[in-house]
Design brief:
about 230 residues, alpha+beta, Beta Polymerase, domain 2, globular
Length: about 230
């Protein structure tokens, strides 16, 4: 974990040198910030906030160079960036609430401060994510005859996603996989196989293998649909 911490600190300094005063701060996001980071499955998420009127030039080049600073860790680096009013950049609704609630500033002691997306915005973003990303992914993974290493991460994420979806729908927040699964234990949504979700959580800590779950012939489309049915009734 120290290597990742050092890499993230170096990336923050790199962007500051490249962007100067237009860069308000660089933040740790995702599981690096809200907890539950997995050395196997987690991305390295950082967010950049700007004070400038116009978007910075050559962001693609800078992000590419940041990834190349440590090529192996760079494969997992995901950079979100925008100004506070989100006139431009890459900082979707769900990542905005994550940054607001959990973002850890790396250059100053100033927490992110901008207008929070409202309930309708968050619910809309969750449903769009389901339609654009999670449904197609579940369909693709459900049709695999065998699970190759390249599919371990998306498979485990698809198993865990119903917990994340339900938690964010009910609480209008982003949280760790651990807390989301704990919440499912509390509310026990009908139709969801909580045991499968708990096994996927064990995989994140290398205490279970994705192949063991895949051997159970899980119908990921039905698994996701059960979560959708829950939120559609709220």
């Amino acid at each position: 974990m120290n290597e990742i911490t050092d890499y993230v600190a170096s990336v923050a300094k790199f962007f500051k040198l490249q962007l100067g005063t237009s860069l308000t701060d660089v933040y740790k996001m995702g599981s690096l910030a809200h907890g539950g980071f997995s050395q196997i499955y987690s991305d390295i998420d950082i967010g950049l906030l700007f004070s400038s009127t116009n978007p910075p030039k050559e962001m693609d080049r800078m992000i590419s160079e940041a990834k190349q600073m440590e090529p192996e860790m760079g494969k997992r680096l995901s950079v979100f960036w925008a100004n506070p009013v989100y006139d431009w950049g890459r900082l979707p609704v769900l990542d905005r609430i994550d940054l607001l609630d959990h973002g850890v500033p790396l250059l100053t002691n100033n927490k992110a401060n901008f207008k929070r997306p409202d309930k309708a915005d968050i619910h809309r973003a969750l449903l769009e994510s389901v339609e654009k990303s999670w449904k197609p992914r579940a369909k693709e993974l459900s049709r695999l005859a065998e699970l190759e290493p390249k599919n371990y991460k998306p498979y485990v994420r698809s198993l865990l996603y119903p917990a994340r979806l339900i938690y964010s729908w009910d609480w209008l927040q982003i949280t760790s996989n651990d807390r989301a699964v704990e919440y499912l234990r509390e509310i026990k949504p009908p139709g969801l196989d909580l045991h499968l979700i708990e096994l996927a959580l064990e995989c994140r800590y290398d205490r279970c293998t994705p192949e063991n779950i895949f051997a159970k012939k899980v119908d990921l489309e039905s698994h996701l649909q059960n979560a959708i049915s829950y939120v559609s009734k709220k």
